[in-house]
Amino acid sequence: MFKKFRRSSKDKVEQRRLSEQRSTSAQLSPVATNNTNNQKSFFSLPAELRNDIYELAASEITLQLFNPTPSKSQKTKPIPALLLANRQCRNEFLPVLLSTASIKASITDFDFNPLLRVTGSLYSTELKALRANPNLKISLRAKKCPNDAYPNLRRWCINRASSLDRLPWSYGVDVPDTQQLQWYAERARVLFEKLGEEPSVRAEVQRVLEVLEEGLGRDLLGQRGWSGGYGDDFVAVAALRRRNNLEGALHAG
Fold this sequence. Notes:
Residues 1-35 are annotated as: Disordered. The chain is α/β, with parallel strands linked by helices. The protein has helices spanning 9-28, 47-58, 87-100, 113-120, 124-131, 149-162, 178-194, 199-221, 232-252; strands at 62-65, 102-108, 136-141, 170-174. It is elongated, with a radius of gyration of 25 Å. 17% of the residues are buried.
């Protein structure tokens, strides 16, 4: 996605060639001198006003990364037009876009490798813009509940704790099946308990676990056969949490 926002070196060479051709043609043609000093363009506006326009445009844009299940009728969203206007407009708008637009990354089965590859290929200026963006969201999805889900999550959390990019990702869940959500939450709980001596990594696991448990609570409350929200599954989950808290207190003592 982000690579589409850049122009290749071939594009630059082609632009330079076309510019030289226009310059040569202009030298061979009569030069118009009337009212040229009075011409106004978008770039005649003050930089502060242009930035306000860029922010308004970027606030209406959502960039979707790695959508795993696009529908047949769903078309690929075009690149924002301001990135294609000209070089100056692209250079001015891109940092605002990356720091303002909603950017959503769909992650399936805790496989964060595609996201790591994307962020690892960004320029320092692009990472700086993304660090200022409060609208970065990771949507956790489930597909097969594979055996490598646990090491995938561990690898991601370790990378987050040691990485210099420090992108402010928030988490959400898009897991339609309650059993799958329980399965993933259990893997996150086990990892959380095993990382007691690595507080920074443990903190990242806790962020993921809190979102999974929040989604699990919503799903359980929505099931049929509940009485005021106190069904058997709810009691089981509550008992497990109390037991974990008690064990933690005993270890601490």
